[in-house]
Design a protein that fits this description.
Helix content is 55%, strand content 0%. It is an all-alpha fold. It is built from 4 helices and no strands. The chain has one domain (2-83): Hypothetical protein af1432 (Orthogonal Bundle), CATH 1.10.3210.10.
Length: 84
């Protein structure tokens, strides 16, 4: 039972990595609200982490700049209800 829940969570997080699911859709034709909420939350968290963490190819963004970018993409790449 626990393994099944873990595998389901893994599948949802893999969907979230696609990031553009609000517009283009996720696997299995899921778009917008039909996408699991946990995947939509993970997509926001993934982008926030990518923007605010230093990487070998870029400096970390200030947190306020990351928030502004995510807010600007609400309704395009992210669920606007979750961003707000």
């Amino acid at each position: 039972m626990l393994i099944r829940h873990y595998l389901k969570l893994q599948q949802i997080l893999l969907w979230a990595i696609m990031k553009s699911g609000m517009v283009l859709g996720y696997p299995q034709g899921l778009v917008g609200d039909s996408t699991p909420e946990s995947a939509r939350i993970a997509a926001i968290a993934d982008v926030f982490d990518a923007l605010t963490m230093k990487r070998p190819y870029k400096e970390a963004w200030p947190i306020d700049k990351a928030f502004i970018t995510i807010e600007q993409d609400a309704g395009i790449h992210f669920d606007p209800h979750l961003v707000n």
